[in-house]
């Protein structure tokens, strides 16, 4: 009976080791996905910053164009 219990415990230990190994693999995958998600969040933030910068630059260029057009109209009116 003792040998049966010992054998049964050894089988349980082996199964626990197997499950622990699987859990470690799952944790590694989760960590990998977390890292990838952080990279995507960073890139998304960088893209949003670049988009805002481009919009600001476009608005500045539109203001400059408006000033040039106004000066051009003034010059044409003087001629």
TrEMBL record:
Keywords: Coiled coil
Superkingdom of origin: Eukaryota
Annotated coiled-coil segments of the chain: 23-78
Record's protein name: Uncharacterized protein
């Amino acid at each position: 009976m003792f040998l049966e219990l010992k054998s049964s415990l050894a089988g349980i230990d082996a199964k626990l080791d197997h499950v622990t190994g699987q859990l470690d693999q799952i944790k590694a995958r989760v960590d990998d996905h977390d890292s990838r998600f952080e990279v995507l969040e960073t890139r998304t933030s960088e893209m949003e910053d670049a988009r805002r910068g481009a919009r600001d630059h476009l608005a500045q260029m539109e203001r400059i164009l408006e000033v040039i057009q106004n000066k051009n109209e003034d010059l044409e009116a003087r001629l």
